[in-house]
Amino acid sequence: MGELYKYYKALEDAYNSGVLHFENNSDRGHNAEVMLLMLRKANRIGMVCGSMSVFRKSFYEHVKSAYPDEGGILEEKMTEALHQFISDPTKSITVVLENPEGEEFDGFLIPKEDFRSKARMYVLKWDEYMPELGHFSYSQEDERIVRLENDKDSHEALVKIGNWEEEEKLNPVFDKILKQSEVYSA
Fold it and tell me: Is the full-model pTM beyond 0.90?
């Protein structure tokens, strides 16, 4: 068993147990494992990201380089999970892009049309009073899976699995971000 498999297994075990669990997420491979868990367990996913790189083949070239024995397998699992998520009429994903450059769907894991037919996509409109925003993704219906990036470039993040009664909820934050966004049209 490789490192990424063990990481996913720890996340899944924590999710299934319902016990509050925190993990550090240190690179693209770990980032992908968290998204894989979301795609498999969540019904609604909310994301604030740069360019949806976790759903692009070029992302997995980095993962394959760092984890030669696991990167290709992880890319296959992600492609299958993304396709299944998008194909399920009961599931939805809302994505807010920070800096779209028109290349968001270059090398996408599934056909662009399939993803666009299901995803609600927005572009964040920055204003001078809005603070720097970190990227995050989470399961919207219950917030049991949350990934908050500390550093957008290195993909370092804190991952929370499970419920924490006293935590500040992300849905109101995400709703405010959506109000500061416009519909993605590319």
Answer: yes
Biggest distance spanned by C-alpha atoms of the chain: 48
Backbone angles phi, psi at 163, to 5 degrees: -100, 145
Long-range contacts of 75-79 (CB under 8 A, 24+ apart): 75/109, 77/36, 78/32, 78/35, 78/36, 78/39, 78/54, 78/109, 79/109, 79/110
3-state secondary structure 102-131: CCCCCCECCCHHHHHHHCEEEEECCCCCCC
Contact 98, 50 (CB under 8 A): yes
Averages of pLDDT over runs of 10 residues in the chain (186 residues) are 94 92 90 97 94 95 97 98 97 92 92 95 73 83 89 83 72 88 88
Residue 81 CB-half CA count within 13 A = 20
What is the architecture, at CATH level 2, of domain 3-8+19-183? 2-Layer Sandwich (3.30)
How many angstroms separate the CA atoms of 136 and 117, rounded? 23
What residues does each domain of the chain span?
3-8+19-183
Neighbouring CB atoms inside 10 A of 113's CB total 9
CB 71 within 8 A of CB 65: yes
Structure tokens at 9: 């297994």
Tokens of 119: 């995803």
